[in-house]
Specification:
By secondary structure, the chain is an all-alpha fold. The chain contains six helices and no strands.
Length: 150
């Protein structure tokens, strides 16, 4: 019984190690796959929400903008990899992409902490206006794509 458990444990460990190694070598998206807005809102809909809900929408939109706007000269949609763009998928480029991801994550952690502490003191109308502005900015990426295809 102990030998079966031992062999099963070794098999599980090797399977996990192989899967982990494959995940590290898989091409990564330039724009995070979490940089998506599920739903856009209008002013009437936002006016009916509580301030806490508005704050969460506000933070979500900031995250998407920070994860998207710096890269629009390369790509505007999540899921596109360096290989898709013809960028060499070598160690140097992977390191640059990894460093950028770490920097973005650090910036967002600090920004979200600030937003959660300070934005509850903002006026509800200003939060609504900011959310609508951010959403319009994100919608304008579709126009950018159309201009880029000309």
């Amino acid at each position: 019984m102990n030998s079966k458990l031992f062999l099963l444990s070794i098999f599980f460990f090797l399977t996990t190690a192989a899967a982990s190694a494959q995940a590290k070598n898989a091409p990564r998206s330039i724009i995070s796959t979490t940089a998506l807005i599920r739903k856009y809102h209008d002013q009437k809909e936002l006016s009916g929400m509580q301030k806490g809900e508005l704050l969460e929408l506000y933070i979500e939109r900031i995250k998407v903008l920070v994860k998207t706007l710096p890269y629009i000269a390369l790509v505007t949609k999540p899921g596109v990899t360096m290989a898709d763009l013809g960028i060499p998928d070598d160690t140097d480029h992977k390191k640059i992409l990894d460093n950028q991801a770490v920097g973005t994550s650090t910036f967002l952690d600090t920004t979200v902490e600030f937003q959660r502490k300070m934005m509850p003191y903002s006026d509800k109308g200003n939060l609504i206006a900011a959310i609508l502005f951010y959403e319009n900015t994100l919608k304008s990426l579709h126009e950018f794509n159309e201009l880029n295809e000309m």
